[in-house]
Amino acid sequence: MAELEHHQKAHEKKLSTYKELEQRYFQNPQELPESGKFQYLTLLNGISYETHWLAWCNQVRELLKQTIEN
């Protein structure tokens, strides 16, 4: 579980950073030049990746919690 917690914290930190970047630089993505739109889309991919990782961590915790309780 310690390893999982370590990974979860790292992904939470990255997700927080990505969301801060989104708020700071991409308020109006439709107004960006094409290269900026690709940067924004890449950032969205990173946000999706980190969000998925955190959802997986939660699934692992739930499954292990159920296993321990049984």
Automatic annotation (TrEMBL):
Signal peptide region: none
Pfam families per the UniProt record, alphabetical: Vir_act_alpha_C
InterPro entries, sorted: Tscrpt_reg_PadR_C, WH_DNA-bd_sf
Domain of life where this protein originates: Bacteria
Domain Transcription regulator PadR C-terminal: 2-65
Gene3D superfamilies listed in its UniProt record: 6.10.140.190
Protein name, per record: Transcription regulator PadR C-terminal domain-containing protein
